[in-house]
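S.,

Sequence below, as promised.
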Amino acid sequence: MKKFKKGIVFPSVVLLGINGVIGGGLFLLPSTMYKQGGQYVLLAIALAGISATLIAMHYAVMSSRIDEDGGAWVYTKRAFGHYPGFLVGWFGWLFGVITISAETAAFLKTLTGLVPAVGTPLVYNSLAIGIMLLLGVMNYFGTGIASRIDDASSLIKIGVILAVFIATVVWLLLGSASQFSIAQAKPVHDFSGAFGNAFYMFTGFSLIPIAAKEMKNPGKMLPRAILTVMLATTAIFVLMQVVAMTVLGDHLAGSSLPVADIFNVILGRVGRTIIITGMMLSIIGVAIATSFNSPIELASMARERGFLPREFSRLNRYGAPVGAILLTIAISGGLILSGSYLFLIKLIVLSDFVQYLGTIFSSIKLRGDATLPTGYKLPGGKWMTYLTIVVVAYLFTTFAFTTVLVGIGFAILGTIIYSVEQRRH
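The prediction came back faster than expected:
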């Protein structure tokens, strides 16, 4: 994660937050959500945005009271002790690992729009392994390039989004829309699924408070920054869905690359090729940046006495934690070979779910702790917390049984490693 000098300005926090929230899901999920949510798909997106905002406000509370790097696992450790803190941190690292896999899968899925052969298992798996090896090599030589890659992919992402909206407005003004029909209202097939996929698009919101705490006056600025980011991203997600439904009509349900198909309708094959290229660069940039951040997070946990073996924190001559890199890339590679994109994003939401629980219950436990600064107080107090717990409980119902089993297996694996390390100390 980027480091900032104390006192970063409000617009910088908002832009950073918007960039952190918007990922590959914006480009790939409109068709899936339309098939699931039908006539209520826009409602599903809006409710997901509201739900994410409620959870993000609890991050704002905790980051304004505990000014330490680490986020949810630090809050949980302070409130409930060593093992709960470790478990939340373990799932926080898993979030990064799965993000690498999911964004790589999104990259390869997007590439099939230019090279259909990528969709065959042999080519797909070979490219996936090749990308994982490349990420490992890049990480081995240190993190100096990570920030530049992140900045470049962010600019490309913004360019793609603006291009879609501007092209659609011009298309409508020219009257070309009369050739197509806006997508008809369809019955709801799976509202919970639509909500879950929409919620995935917001999962980067947990980065907002961590960056915003570098502000001079987080107590006042954090809530404004979070609300601004969440309103802006909700508007972008809703607008992209509306554009897809308007331009593609009922063809949206059968589109695997909806944003690319929007450009195919408006500008033809050349426009589609250009936008797919932009999407690919934006998506792979996220995977690369995350591949640098995740091993560092694992190494920081290894440096915490009794959390993980010290081997994961040892640095090579380039300052890179080799053990953490190897484990991160190995698990990411295994996940991309074993799961589909939709399965991977469900795992992302599950891994974040554990961090949400840690943060929310830590805010309850530490609410009356006089040893901590007063910090930001939630409007509505405990009632907003109760409402957030209800939201999180509903989010849990969107997980498939297989997803929960994977989560339990990962928790057991982490517990075994943690127990062995405890005995060593």
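The chain has one domain: 10-424.

Coffee later?
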